[in-house]
Amino acid sequence: MQTILVVDNDDMMRTLMLDILGEKYKVILAPDGEIGLGLFEKNETEIRLVITDLIMPVMNGFEMSKAIRALSLNVKIIVYSSSISLEECQILFGLAGVRVSKFLSKPTRVQEIKKLVGKLLQE
Questions:
Q1: Distance of CA 1 to CAs 25, 28, 101, Å?
Q2: Per-residue model confidence as pLDDT tens digits over 28-77
Q3: What is the Cβ-side half-sphere exposure of residue 58, based on CA atoms within 13 angstroms?
Q4: Domains in the chain, number
Q5: Measured at the alpha carbon of residue 107, what is the angle toward residues 52 and 102, in degrees to the nearest 5?
Q6: CA 65, CA 51: separation in Å to the nearest integer?
Q7: What CATH number is associated with residue 68?
Q8: Which domain range does residue 25 map to?
Q9: Burial of 93 (C-beta count, 10 Å sphere; 0-12/13-18/19+)
Q10: What is the pLDDT of residue 123?
């Protein structure tokens, strides 16, 4: 079973992602980027995909993604946000040289998440 790390400060969003993905994947949940990064470091060889909100307290999704990318070039990363546009996300990450697999705008449909995750994990 493939492992996905979901990082979001919104309890409902983490629960939703677990409900959506938990039947098919092992899902590790984190409430902020700092905890998410720590969990990634502990489970780096196991985690194939990181799904993260962009705006979070303590460490945001951008900072966490940048740190994760420095540890692993192979892990897939999906970033989502309701606060800034997809174009702004692409510029922010692109200027920092942080490669992300996909940007999503919140809210996102359940079927879109399932389809994207399956495609990125090649199932």
A1: 6, 13, 21
A2: 999 999 999 999 999 999 999 999 998 898 999 989 999 999 999 899 99
A3: 14
A4: 1
A5: 45
A6: 10
A7: 3.40.50.2300
A8: 3-120
A9: buried
A10: 58
